[in-house]
Amino acid sequence: MKIGSDIIKVYKDVHIWVGIVCGLMLFIAFYAGAITMFEKPLERWATPPSHLAPAPPLEDAEDLLAAVRDKHPQAAQRYAIVIEPSPDQPARLIWSERGDDPRESIEYGASFAPDGSLQTERLRKATVAGLVDRMHQYVGLPLPDVAAQLLMGLVALAYAVALLSGLIVLLPTIIKDVFALRIGRNLKRMWLDAHNALGIFSLPFHLVIALTSVVFAFHTPFYAAQEHALYGGEIDWGEHEAAPRGTTPLPAAELLRRANVQLPGFEVYGFVFQTEKDGNVEAFIMGLDTRHGTRGRTWMRTHLDPFTGEVDLHDLPGHMDDGWNEAVNAFFALHFGSFGGNPVRWLYVLMGLAGAALFYTGNVLWIESRRKKQRDAGLPVQKRSTRVLGALTVGVSLGSVAGISATIAATKWLPAHVGDADLWHEAIYYAVFVAGIAWAFARGAAHGAIDLLRLCAVLTLAIPLSSLAGLWRIGGAWSHPGSWPVDVTALVAVPVLLWLAAHTRRRALAGQRDSVWSAARA
Predict the structure, then answer these.
(1) CA–CA distance from 67 to each of 79, 93, 147, 177, 275 (Å)?
(2) Which of 89, 152, 202, 513 lies 20 to 30 Å from 335 when distance is taken between CA atoms?
């Protein structure tokens, strides 16, 4: 297929400048997104231990609820019965109350003490997993959520344009270049081959992520337009009628038995009950069926009749009765990787990290393509734009990696020493992130990359070390049984980061001396 050189040049310019403008934000989004693929294990690892007595049997959940309602009547407004309590949900019965801030919701858990008395506790939820998820969604932009969401929607749209323009640029030489990876002294050729290979082989994944991100960012305007254009100003969301007041829900054990009959292969996590203003009760069943994708990253839910145990199947993937809902559900599942269990999750982790590498290599390629080559014994003075972008690429990318590792490592220590752990988590991330950028500018791209990669390795190593400290309760740290996946993953990442630091150092010392990545420029 012949494509004119002028057309190729136009699309190449579009691809380059969109990548330059959006690449660093997308690096943070993809790196944090890779971590959120295992948000639930991270949340479990990061949740402080509860002081509640072991949860009573599921058969005693109604007795526990009655005891809680006697002391805390407001618990009847909305509460959950947990099927299998875990470190991140340590109570059989959990309810929420409004805090001093109307937007704040405080969770409490309840159990029976050994002497049979009621025991309650304000649950300390881990926030670091939520912070990483916010980095994925908003890349830490200091803007209100709505503004940051709309901006990231525009970034995702530009990202889709960059993907398509890059494909058009590569089409004339795709057969020759896509399988080539020429490693040698020609840095531009090496980075171009790496960038092309990452882009082509992961193109379907990137198109899915780009398009779904646009929909997520603009779903409110989309629905508003749909509501006015197609539904006369009001969409019928299929509201469920709450069960009439004055009746008693079935025991949780019986609800679980009936749910298992109706939903073979569905793992029930719990039941949520809420009392409407008119006194009627609405109930939901929460859980996961890994055979089907889900709109949530780690769970799915649907309505449940609390008095008959009948599950409303049409909201559940695999049971939907129309193609539109199935298509919308598939849209969410493809973005979150919430299908196929852990093998698909690990695949999405690798694709997310490869995506981050794609944006990093794009910036490096732009810098190398504008490098002034050495003509004599003296080193040429590189353009300020290449020096600035080199420092920004190193500082923003590795600063975000170091910041995320630092704030995760601090999780085991903060609750015992500070009151507002949320504020401290954000402060730690931004302090490390900003310091990383400043260090890259002060040291230059070459030395800054080596130093920051080593720092990333040290801070990532601090994650399992904090768990090790928790085994001996040092400094208020803790360690949950079964939380080893987070620690092992961090341990695996440490030698990779050290190898990257060593490779970067070798390239800085032995590579082309006129490059901004050369140690000769420091």
Answers:
(1) 13, 11, 45, 70, 18
(2) 89
- Plot region of 79 (φ>0 → left; ψ -120 to 50 → alpha; else → beta): beta
Residue 217 buriedness (CB in 10 A; 0-12 / 13-18 / 19+): buried
**Residue-level pLDDT at 502:** 94
| Those residues with Cβ within 8 angstroms of residue 502's Cβ, 6 or more apart along the chain or in another chain | none
State both tokens at 211. Answer: 């398009």
pLDDT in tens, 49-72: 899 999 999 999 999 999 999 999
pLDDT tens digits for range 279-301 = 788 899 999 888 887 877 788 88
Residue of 171, 152, 127 lying closest to 213 (CA atoms): 152
Contact 518, 446 (CB under 8 A): yes
User: Chain-centre distance of CA 247, in angstroms?
Assistant: 41
pLDDT band per the 50, 70, 90 thresholds, residue 419: confident
pLDDT band at 347 (very low <50, low <70, confident <90, very high): very high
- Which SS3 state, helix, strand or coil, does residue 133 take? helix
CA angle 27, 30, 32 (to 5 degrees): 105
CA-based end-to-end distance of the chain: 46
Residue 299 or residue 194, greater confidence: 299
- DSSP run (H or E) holding 3: none
Task: Please name the residue ranges forming H helices in 171-321.
Answer: 174-177, 187-201, 203-217, 219-230, 252-262
Instruction: Name the nearest CA neighbour of 121 among 68, 67, 52, 75.
Output: 52
Q: What is the DSSP string of 141-198?
A: -SS-HHHHHHHHHHHHHHHHHHHHHHHHHHGGGHHHHTT----SS-HHHHHHHHHHHH
Helix (H, G, I), strand (E, B) or coil at 270: strand
Per-residue model confidence (pLDDT) at position 364: 81
